[in-house]
Write a structure and sequence with these properties.
The complex is a heterodimer of chains A (121) and B (299).
Chain A (H helix, E strand, L loop, with lengths): L1 E8 L2 E10 L4 H13 L4 E12 L1 H17 L2 E5 L3 H9 L2 H4 L1 E3 L2 H8 L10
Helix pairs in contact in A: 1-2
Chain B lengths: L3 H32 L2 H32 L6 H32 L7 H31 L2 H29 L9 H28 L6 H13 L6 E10 L2 E9 L6 H18 L3 E7 L6
Parallel strand pairs in B: 2-3
Antiparallel strand pairs in B: 1-2
Helix pairs in contact in B: 1-2, 1-4, 2-3, 2-5, 3-5, 3-6, 4-5, 5-6, 7-8
The chains are: A alpha/beta (121), B mainly alpha (299).
Chain lengths: 121, 299
Amino acid sequence: MLTVNVAKSGAVNEVLLTGELDGMTSPQLEQQLNRLIEAGERRFLIRFAALTVITSAGLRVFLGLAKKMHKLGGNLVLCEMSANVRGVFDTTGFSNIMTICAAAAEGKALLEPDSAPAPSA
Amino acid sequence: MFGSSGHMSKEEAARTAVIAGAVDVLVTLSALIAAHSSVLLADFFKTSLEFIAVLLSWLAIRRIVSGTQHQFDYGLGKLENLSSLFVGSIMLLGMLVIVINAIANLLNPSHIQGVGVWISLGAQIVFGGINGALSWRSFRTARAENSPLLESQAKLFFTRAFGNVFILLALGLSLLLSGFSWSVYIDPAASLVIAASILISAIGVLSSSFYDLLDRTLEETDQIVILRELAQHFHDYEALHGIRSRRAGGEVFVEVFLEFDPDKTMGEIQNVADALCRSIEAQIPGSRVAVALAREASH
C-alpha cells in the first residue's frame, strides 16, 4: 500500500510517500510523476519520512525520474530518508547520482528558483 | 553461439548414460527371467523406469543442441526443467513399484533362488561402479555449467548406485543367512530403504524443477546489481525505459531498454552496451544480458 501526496509550493512539487514502494505500488508512483512531468513540472522534492519499505522496483522509478530530470533540465531532490533507505541508496550508488538532503527544508531551499539549482545528477 | 561446447558435453554425458542404462535393463531382465524373484522384478522395473528417464533427458538435450544452432534459444532452461520434472515423476513411479513388491514379499515371504540371483550379484557390482562414476561425472559437470538437468542426472545415478549396493547386500545376506527363517524379510526390508531414498531424491528433483518452471523475476540482490550498474553508467545513456528479467532453470535473462543520445555513433552505443552487459554478467551467475535500444513513446 502506497499513498502519494503531491503539494505544490511555488515551483516545487513536494511528493510525500507513505507506505511501501515495491513492485505492486511503484507503477502508481511512476504514473503520477509522469503526469506531472507531462504537465510541465520540473522541480521535485521527494519526501521519504513515511516510507517504510523500498524495493528494487521502487528504486527503478527514481533512476528513471533522475534521468528524465537530467534530460529535461529539471531538478530532483530526495529527503527525510531513514538510515535503512539511505543505506539502499548508498549500496546502489544512487546517492552518487542524486541529490539527497536530510531535511525537507534544506531540499526545498535547493529547489527554489532563486537559489542555486540542485545538481540533477 | 552461447554455450555450444557446454551443451555438447551435456549430450555426451547423457548419451553415455543411455547406453549404460540400456545394458543395465538387459542384464536385470536376464536375472529376472532366470531367478523369478520379486526383488529382482522390482529391480527390473526400477532400472527400466530410470532408463526411460535418462533416454528422455538425452532427447531433450539433443533438442537443446539443435535449438542452439538454429532457434528456440529463449526457453532452453524451461525444456531442461520439464525433463527434470518428468524424471522426478518417473522416479516416484519406480518407488511405488518397489514399495508394492516389498509389501507383497512381506505378506508372502520366500527364500530367493535361481541362477538369476548370481547374475544379479555380478551386475550390481559392475553397475554400482558405473553408476557411481556417472554420478560423480554428472555432478561435476552440473556444478560447472549450473544445469538443473545434469544435477537431476547426478542425483539419479547416485540413487541407482545406492540401489545397486543395497540389492547386492540384500541378495548376499539372503544367501549367506538362508539358514535363519527371518532372512526371508531381508530383501523386502532392503527394498523399502531403497524406495525411501528414491522418494527423497524424487521430491528434491520435482520441487526444484517445478519451482524453476514457474518463470520468476530475479532476487532482490540481483536486481540491485543491475540498478547499481545502471547508476555507474548513468551518464552513458539518455533514458531508462525498462528492465525485463526472468530466471529459467539455471539461466538468467536480463533485457535493459535504454535510450541513447542520437548524436552517439553505433560504435559508442555498442561499447556502452558491451560494458554494461559484461559487468552485470560477471556479477550474476548464469546470466545473459541484452541491451535493447528504446525510444520515448510519442504522446
